[in-house]
User: What shape does this take?
Amino acid sequence: MTLYSWNVNGLRAALRKGFVDWFRQADADVVCLQETRMGDAQLPLELAALSGYTWHWSHARTRKGWSGVAIASRVPLTGVRELGVPPFDEEGRFLVAGLEDGTVLVNGYFPNGGRGGEHVSRKLQSYAAVLGQVHGLRLAGREAIVCGDLNTCHRPVDLARPANNKRTSGFLPEERAWLDHFEQSGLVDVFRRDEPDPDHYTWWSNRAGSRERNVGWRLDHFWVSEELAPRCRSWHEPHVLGSDHCPLALEIRPQ
Assistant: This one.
């Protein structure tokens, strides 16, 4: 099974930049999108051409044209729902779905703490909410996958200029500590497990040719439960344009 995750930074904009061609080429079983920026009445007709997929959406209710996540799947999903935490559901930030083998997938667009203060606090609350649900699932004997735009780099190797960003949201100690908690709870960052080297990023600023110079941040991740991790590999596709983020993939081998 192959899963993709991509913060498209506006799905309608991504559609104008080759999203449908990328989607067909990816040929994924499940595609998780973040920052779709659409409302219930704005679903693009172009998606109807992607036959064989069922779409699930969570749209922001309090602020139109903002946030939003989606899951497209050609394999059966069960119990698709939002996170069940009203502040994040109102912003369309999470979708939770069961895969065929009982694994639970969490697709998230975690808050940005860029304005500091309460924004960082809400971001940390989102980590706690997701990790609490993952912990409950694992206690019940179920494996979990958490993917999406986590909006934090875990270690210095995950951004081009760590020394310059120690006080910048996305690399604050309190944000990074929550990714330590992910590890301590039995989740594995599959990409970083296999790739220790620097210069692998998923987001680049639109300013000053950052992407061309590969001055980026690895904000987008796949975390999987340690029981599932041995069957997984993950990679980035930085050559795919259409957003300030690039797609990343997770392949799960059969047992």
